[in-house]
Design goal:
2 domains; 5-stranded parallel β-sheet; alpha/beta; 14 helices; Rossmann fold; single chain
């Protein structure tokens, strides 16, 4: 372990706190994480200067109210980014799934640059894996060893980091988005989207194959989810609403819709909504079936019967933690099993509701612990929080 440079003088009551993650990428999951992290930091230090390092600063400025500054970290000179890092008292990495092959080294080079300038660093409920590339593994080992605190959002991430060779305390909490507050999704919004105001509604989430879901066969899972949607239309006399959590999801939702025998009972949300508004929309649903992690998180927060369709470990882990059924894989030959699981989920949910709510409360408490640990680091660098904010921080950890 290399020795870190001396830390700068105490920051005082108005620290500059940088937040680095996969922000500005038009992904509702990442943006919900950013909203929650900034909310935590603002509760901890109302007078702090919050600086977001974004992949698309213009997008982040337009959609994030809590940030005082937003700067690009891609496509700009290294000196410019390093000047921003040097101006910080603390750099918060994450949260979300950013420590994986091809990306981990890019984020952690900035963390290392901050450390070299005496900036304190905190890993905020990050996700890790897969990590098989030697350069990424070495960077993770060396940089995380020098961070002030490392918090991951699930047990799988801790195991990945231990396998890589990270030899330090790693705390497991939960995804920061569990602290997201819902915003109203109004009747006018419903009408504008053509979603019926009365009758049952089922939410669905689909995603594209990619680095996180390389084994998905597009035609296979499009047809499978169309079978599920048609079944729910018949079984519940429902309309099915697809919620795009990322811009590429729209194309895949249309593909599923094209395979349905009852496409007239399907809708795709096309408006640009904040994470809080999409969480608010979930309150209109009766059941949820989906692939994206934060769709499943939003469903759980809303108290819905939810069937996750895991494509990666992070979805399996969250399904396990909320006690939800989770099928292995998303393949057409599983159609009968999947339909039977959806049917059982609907029938048994009244008996499962209390257990789900209890598990979600526990996870929200764990998400609040990340905020409290970050606050402890801020206490170390000086400038205790305003007494009026202490109760809010305690609420996050309750």
């Amino acid at each position: 372990m290399t020795s870190a440079p001396p830390h700068p003088p105490p920051a005082g009551p108005h620290p500059r706190i940088g937040v680095l993650g996969s922000y500005g990428g038009f992904n509702i999951g990442d943006e919900s994480i950013l909203t929650s992290v900034l909310g935590c930091l603002r509760a901890q230090r109302p007078q702090a200067r919050l600086v977001v390092l974004s992949r698309d600063a213009a997008h982040t400025r337009a959609h994030v109210r809590e940030a005082d500054e937003v700067v690009d970290w891609e496509g700009v000179s290294r000196n410019r980014v390093h000047d921003t890092l040097a101006s910080l008292d603390v750099l918060v990495l994450g949260g979300g799934g950013i420590l994986y092959d091809g990306e981990a080294r890019r984020y952690l080079r900035l963390v290392r640059a901050a450390q070299e300038r005496g900036v304190r660093t905190f890993a905020y409920a990050v996700g890790a894996g897969p990590l098989g590339e030697p350069e990424d593994r070495e960077t993770v080992r060396t940089v995380l060893a020098e961070m002030d605190d490392v918090v991951v959002r699930d047990e799988e991430s801790r195991l990945v980091l231990e396998e890589v060779g990270v030899e330090r305390e790693i705390t497991v909490t939960a995804d920061p988005a569990l602290l997201l507050e819902p915003e109203p999704f109004t009747d006018r919004m419903m009408r504008n989207e053509g979603v019926p105001a009365h009758g049952r509604l089922v939410g669905m989430s689909v995603r594209e194959p990619g680095r996180a879901a390389e084994k998905l066969d597009e035609g296979d899972y499009h047809a499978l989810l169309a079978d599920v949607a048609d079944f729910l239309v018949r079984r519940l006399d429902a309309h099915v609403v697809f919620l795009p959590m990322e811009r590429h999801d729209v194309r895949h939702a249309h593909a599923v819709l094209s395979h349905m025998s009852a496409p007239d009972r399907g809708r795709i949300l096309h408006g640009a909504y904040s994470p809080g508004q999409l969480l608010g929309f979930m309150r209109h649903l009766d059941l949820a079936v989906g692939m994206r992690l934060h769709f499943v998180i939003f469903a759980a927060l809303s108290g819905l019967p939810v069937l996750p369709l895991p494509y990666s470990g992070k979805v399996f882990d969250f399904a396990r933690r909320i006690g939800a059924p989770a099928l292995v894989g998303v393949a057409r030959e599983q159609a009968g099993l999947l339909l039977a699981e959806v049917d059982r989920l609907w029938d048994e949910y009244p008996q499962r509701r209390a257990d789900l709510r209890s598990r979600v409360r526990e996870l929200c408490g764990l998400a609040g612990e990340t905020c409290a640990r970050c606050g402890a680091l801020l206490d170390e660098i000086g400038g205790s929080p305003d007494p009026d904010t202490v109760s809010e921080v305690r609420r996050l950890s309750a």
